[in-house]
Design goal:
It contains ten helices and no strands. By secondary structure, the protein is mainly alpha-helical. The longest helix has 32 residues, at 29-60.
């Protein structure tokens, strides 16, 4: 039973992210480099947040559960700001490499005649790196516990702990992709309002995790937030309408829309 839970939760958590990785990243050396850079920046944020948590617990003491919860909430909020600052730093770094001379040198170093990536593509790959690392580190310990020994809920706890945690980790990876697309767009347009909205949505997602073990409520609210952020990021990336609804309605996709939906690229400039 533990092995079935392990593989089932693993496929739920990492299936969508790894599918995006295989179909949109692995065929391009430049995208792989961006993926590694994004993953490294996320790890830097994790180290900084962990050091902050360790310092606060050491100074304040960790014997009181209420105090631990308050410290955890404070560190989680600060970790969100650190992560968004590093996401903005990744935009600055990728924006530097977007100059024609720099990008041409990078492309010739990696692969001769490598394609130029749009800002939306770079944001997508960077966000996917953040999402993969976030899911891996937040769910790895849970997966190790799922192998046993023991049965979840034997002492009265919720028996849906593993499945809901898997879905929450999966949604976090999707949210990370969307947040990168939105923050890159906000930085490109120099829109403080969009940037603040991204940070607030990230804080909201982090706060919803504190509703656990009321898993039904937290999972439902996370799903609503994911749908809203996905729709917003799709519009910010230049998408028009819903591809599924367009196909159901019988209207064929235009050339520009087909490029957007299939290759995750920005609209073709005429």
């Amino acid at each position: 039973m533990g092995l079935a839970v392990f593989f089932g939760c693993s496929f739920i958590t990492f299936g969508p992210a790894f599918a995006l990785l295989m179909f949109t990243v692995t065929d391009s050396p430049v995208r792989v480099i961006i993926l590694v850079v994004g993953a490294s920046l996320w790890l830097v944020g994790l180290v900084l947040s962990s050091l902050m948590w360790y310092a606060l617990v050491s100074l304040c003491g960790g014997s009181d559960p209420n105090l631990q919860l308050q410290l955890l909430a404070a560190v989680a909020a600060v970790a969100v700001f650190i992560q968004e600052a590093l996401r903005a730093a990744s935009y600055k770094l990728l924006r530097f490499f977007s100059h024609e001379t720099t990008h041409a040198a990078l492309a010739s170093f990696v692969v001769k005649g490598g394609p130029t990536l749009s800002l939306q593509q770079k944001a997508f790959v960077s966000g996917l790196a953040f999402g993969l690392m976030s899911s891996a580190f937040s769910f790895a310990n849970i997966l190790s516990v799922s192998l046993g020994p023991g049965i979840v809920g034997i002492h009265g706890e919720s028996s849906h702990f593993f499945i809901t945690s898997a879905f929450q980790a999966m949604m976090q990876s999707g949210l990370q992709v969307c947040w990168s697309v939105l923050l890159f767009s906000a930085c490109e347009r120099r829109s403080w309002a969009r940037g603040v909205a991204v940070v607030l949505s990230h804080l909201l997602s982090c706060g919803l995790s504190f509703l656990n073990p009321r898993y039904c409520l937290s999972l439902l609210l996370q799903s609503v937030l994911l749908v809203a952020v996905v729709m917003w990021s799709w519009v910010e990336a230049g998408g028009r309408g819903c591809p599924c609804l367009l196909r159901i309605g019988g209207r064929p996709l235009t050339k520009v829309e087909a490029v957007q939906y299939s290759a995750l690229r920005s609209p073709v400039e005429h």
